[in-house]
Amino acid sequence: MYSSTYSVGNFVSALEYGQFENDLQILNRWCSERGLTKDQVYFIHANLQPSTDLNFTMIGVNTFLCWVEGIHDNISKFEPATDSNLYLNYNRRSKVHRAMMTAYLIKENLLHRGLVSYHGDNLKNTKLLLPEHLHNEAELIDSFMPKEIDMDLATNNPARQLSLAHYEQTFLSLISETHTYAGMLFFSEKVWKTVGVGHPFMLVGNPGALKKLREMGYQTFMTWWDERYDEVEDLETRIQMIVGEIKRLSNLSVDELKQMRTEMHPVLVHNQNVFNHQWQDSCEIDEEAQLEKIVKGIWNSF
To answer: Does the predicted TM-score (pTM) go above 0.85?
Structure first.
C-alpha cells in the first residue's frame, strides 16, 4: 500500500490552485506509469470536494475542526458596544478576495460598521491584487494597514485562539476564508469557530461552500438574507452580492438586529449542537483522531 498526504495550505491565488492541480496530475501519471490503482494509493488532504477521475483515491479530512479548542454550551450574545457592531471580519494573510472584500466595504461606506482586522502581512501592494477600478480603495487599504483589533498580527497568529468578546459585539461573521476558487471545498478554523460559538455568518469561500455545510448537517441563513452568492463562481460578483446584503442589514436598527438574532436562535443552537457532536467525535481525544481513523480504515480494507 502506498499513501500520500498533502496539506492544503495558504495559497495566495488561483495560480497556486493550478499548481495543486498540476501536482495531482503528476501523481496521477506516476500511478498510471507504474500500474497502481485506486486501491493502492490514497491521497489524504483538506479538500472536501475530491476528484474521482484519477488513478488514486482522494480522501478529504476536516482537520481544522480540531483547531477549535473545546466546545461551547451557550450561544454568543449580541451586545454591541460601538457602531462597529454589524459584522466581524478577520483578515491576517494577504489574499485577493480579502483585499477585494475590504475594498467593496470601503466603497459602500461599510468598513466602519464592522469589527475588522486587516494585516495583509503589512504589504503595501494592494493595487497589485485588485482591478484598476478598485485602485482608489486599494490606496486607502494601504494607508491604514495594518488594521488590528486587539493584538499585533505580525507576531501573533490567532488561528487557535477564540475571542468570544468579538462575536458578542457583532451581529454576524463575515468570514474571509482561505480559498475561494471553484473545484475545491475547504473550511478553516474561521468557519468552525463561528458555528461553535453560535454566530450567524456570510461566507466568502469556495462556490458551493454553504451547500456543503448543509450536506454536513448545518443550517444556513437564507431565511434572513440572500444566499444565492454561494452559487456564483465569479469572485467579484460574489463579493458584490455579499456586500449588498451587508449594506441592506446596515439600514436596520440595533433593536431590529436583536430581533432578527432572536428569530434565528433555533438555527444557531442547531449548528452549535452539530458542531459539538462532530468535535467530540473527531477531536475530543486527539485532534489526529480523524486521520488515524481514515488510515486504519484503509489498512483494514486489505
So the answer is: yes
Nearest in space to 95 (alpha carbons), one of 13, 202, 19, 156: 13
pLDDT by residue, tens only, the chain of 302 residues: 334 333 323 333 444 455 567 788 888 899 999 999 888 899 888 889 877 788 898 888 888 999 998 899 999 999 999 999 999 999 998 899 999 999 999 999 999 999 999 998 888 999 999 999 999 999 999 999 999 998 888 888 888 899 999 999 999 999 999 999 888 899 999 999 999 999 999 999 999 999 999 999 999 999 999 999 999 999 999 999 999 999 999 999 999 999 999 999 999 999 999 999 999 988 887 878 888 888 888 888 88
Lookup result for grid cell 485577493: 96
Rounded CA-CA distance 56/53 in Å is 9
CA distances from 8 to 1, 60, 62, 267 (A): 23, 10, 11, 30
| Residue type for position 188 | S
